[in-house]
Specification:
The protein is mainly alpha-helical and 132 residues long. It is built from four helices and no strands. It has two domains: 1-73; 90-132. Helices cover 92% and strands 0% of the residues. Helix 1 (2-89) packs across helix 2 (91-104) and helix 3 packs across helix 4 (120-131). The model has no long low-confidence stretch (mean pLDDT 89).
């Protein structure tokens, strides 16, 4: 009877040993798979960090470029305002502005001379400049 119990105990111990070995091997495979996933995620995180850095650098470059363009636009607007002020305060500039509008509408040299009080040479010059 003791022999049967000993054999049963050895069989149970062997089965338990096999189960423990099987669980250990399965756990090792899972740990390896998790390590591989972890490495892949670390690689992706590094890639995302690099892309984010590039985007930040690009955004800074775009921001400074926008500031430059805004500065140039502001300067151009200021110059345009000055020109408008100069033209509105200068009666001679108003006269030539009116003459150019008349030329664009098809006025002749004679009409320019009469309505804008321009010398013939200046009226001819305006008409020839417009025709080019």
């Amino acid at each position: 009877m003791i022999e049967i119990i000993a054999i049963a105990a050895l069989t149970i111990a062997a089965i338990l040993g096999l189960v423990i070995w099987w669980v250990y091997k399965r756990t090792q495979r899972q740990v390896c798979a998790i390590k591989l996933l972890f490495k892949e995620q670390q690689r992706q995180i590094a890639s995302f960090k690099s892309e984010l850095h590039e985007m930040r650098c690009g955004a800074v470059g775009v921001g400074s470029r926008v500031q430059q363009v805004e500065g140039k636009l502001q300067q151009a607007m200021e110059r345009q305002d000055k020109l408008v002020q100069q033209q509105s305060s200068d009666p001679q500039a108003k006269l030539y502005g009116q003459a150019m509008k008349m030329v664009e509408l098809g006025a002749t040299v004679e009409e320019l001379m009469q309505q804008c009080d321009l010398p013939r040479a200046e009226a001819e010059l305006l008409v020839s400049l417009h025709s080019q």
